[in-house]
Design brief:
With 122 residues, this protein is an alpha+beta fold. The chain has six helices and six strands; from the N terminus they run αββαααβββααβ.
Length: 122
């Protein structure tokens, strides 16, 4: 499957919401497939993928802060410091928002190890 459940990562920044991407408008980055709602968004991503790609490979940022990979709800997102973070669901997002900076620091410190794990909580 595509990262972000097939939603356009650039749209989060431009439209402030998840927008479904099209299979015909895809781009591969770091071994993952991203879909886009428009060719302009795909081209913007291709020009600077680090600017638009979700943190932690598109897994739940709260989960990574706790040491595991988890799926996400594309609607449970935040942009912090110009970076896109997604969460498992809106309830988890509410917890995430209580200490976003602290959770980002924990997730950043754990991501190299979590990235290597195969199991993903669904």
């Amino acid at each position: 499957g595509a990262v972000l459940g097939g939603h356009d990562p650039v749209a989060y920044f431009l439209e402030g919401k998840p927008v479904a991407g099209q299979v015909s408008l895809r781009h591969e980055y770091q071994g993952s497939i991203f879909l886009f709602a428009s060719a302009a968004n795909r081209d913007a991503f291709a020009a600077d993928p680090a600017k638009y790609a979700p943190q932690y490979g598109g897994y739940c940022a709260f989960g990574v802060s706790r040491g595991y990979k988890a799926d996400i709800d594309p609607a449970a997102f935040t942009i912090v410091g110009g970076k896109l973070y997604v969460n498992y669901n809106r309830q988890v997002q509410a917890d995430w928002l209580k200490d976003t900076g602290g959770f980002i620091a924990k997730a950043d410190s754990r991501w190299d190890e979590v990235r290597k794990t195969e199991k993903v909580y669904r």
